[in-house]
Amino acid sequence: MATAAHAAFSPVEITPDWEGFVRTIRRERVPDRVHFIELFIDPEVQEAIARRYGLLDGLRRDDPHWDEQFQIRLQRFLGYDYVRATCEGLAMRLKVLNAEDTSALKRAGGRQYVDEHKGPVTNWDEFEKFDWARVEHITTRQLEYFEKHLPDDMCVVAFGQIGHYAEMLNWLMGYETLCFALFNDRELVRAMFERLDHLYQAAVRTIVQFDRVKVIWGSDDMGFRSGTLISPADLREFVLPGHKALARIAHDAGRPYILHSCGKLSPILPDLVDDVRIDGKHSFEDTIGSVIEFKRKYGHKVAALGGIDVDFLCRSDETAIRRRVRETLAACQSEGGYCLGSGNSICNYIPVDHYLAMLDEGRKWRG
User: Fold this and answer.
1) CATH number, domain at 218?
2) Over 50: is that where the pLDDT of 4 sits?
3) How far apart, in whole angstroms, are the C-alpha atoms of residue 340 and residue 342?
4) Helix axes 66-78, 43-53, angle to 10 degrees
5) Cα dihedral 82, 278, 345, 34 sign
6) Average pLDDT in the 200-214 region?
7) What does the pLDDT look like over 43-74, one tens digit per residue?
8) Which residue range(s) make up the domain with 149?
9) Which residues contact 196 (CB under 8 A, 6 or more apart)?
10) In what order do the strands lie in the sheet with 257-260?
11) Cα–Cα distance, 356 to 76 (Å, whole number)
């Protein structure tokens, strides 16, 4: 069923090639074809594609590994060389607000937003009482399944709850409280960073023990449209050392370390490239800077990942999307070190046909 459906969304067949994918991230050679990458695909989009193309046929939702089996089938169908997986036991309770989801593929239960004013850890007393995720609670059920059952031509990209230093400081304290704490109680911020760093380093050391994991993907939004969320100096003190440690663990284990981070990061991009030593940068927004500009400036040192702007994918027609993909590939693909994808992720408000048009045009590209 998946083979017949595959031809329905694109006439170009793709066989996963994790080795080519990793070589592309490492900038080792110009790839034979375009490789794809996404931070995540919203569950509503996954479900819509699966139902349209019969990808659920033969899968049993009562199987304890239904989701892992589905991810393998979906990722292969779409043309990715990997599945995404991570440890369990890293999540922590946050203070969230709910709002109605108004997208076409509406999310059950609405959307959730972290309270920007005040989180669950705003002082030393709350720090001591907070139910922190602990190293001893880390489990690897999903990684163990993929280690045994993932097809040989695919790999695992480890992501999710890895390296959220800036984000977790923001989410746990609340952005407003964090800004005050950086002035009034820097030792509390430092203690929180150290707690997070201990957890994330342990998680990545655990993850790299699995041979099928070939890429470590940290995720940590540090900026917004016109600047960094906290000062570059504070990022260098409380955030970048953590990513440098994770990159070192990944590199010592022979894996590249790529980073997703939203916002205008130009003040710290040299730090990320030359000190942290990321192998690839993800998240690009047209109102901040295009992936083509980044590739021209930093492509000789790190891979450029994604870059088809999310707002553009939402608002443009398929003809414009295909033209944008071709223009991006013409600028970024010829020297290697580029994977095609959205500027951020495939959200449930991106029309499914627009997403598939991006992938189809990438499949057809021959330079």
Assistant:
1) 3.20.20.210
2) no
3) 7
4) 70
5) negative
6) 98
7) 999 999 999 999 999 999 999 999 999 999 99
8) 2-364
9) 164, 165, 168, 169, 242
10) 82-85, 155-158, 213-219, 257-260, 280-282, 303-305, 338-339
11) 14
Put residue 96 in one of left, alpha, beta given phi > 0 → left and psi -120 to 50 → alpha: beta
Q: What is the rounded CA–CA span in Å between residue 3 and residue 196? A: 44
- Structure tokens given for 120: 């669950």
Q: Residue 337: which region, alpha, beta or left (left: phi > 0; alpha: psi -120 to 50)?
A: left
- Quote the number of domains for the chain: 1
Number of H helices, E strands in the chain: 16, 11
Number of residues assigned to the chain? 367
Locate all alpha helices (DSSP H) within the chain, ordered by sequence: 2-9, 18-25, 43-53, 66-78, 124-129, 141-149, 165-173, 175-184, 186-207, 232-238, 240-252, 269-270, 291-298, 310-315, 318-332, 352-364
Tell me if 227 sits within 8 A of 270, measured CB to CB: no
Query: Tens digits of per-residue pLDDT, 87-115?
Result: 999 999 999 999 998 998 989 888 998 98
DSSP state of 211: T
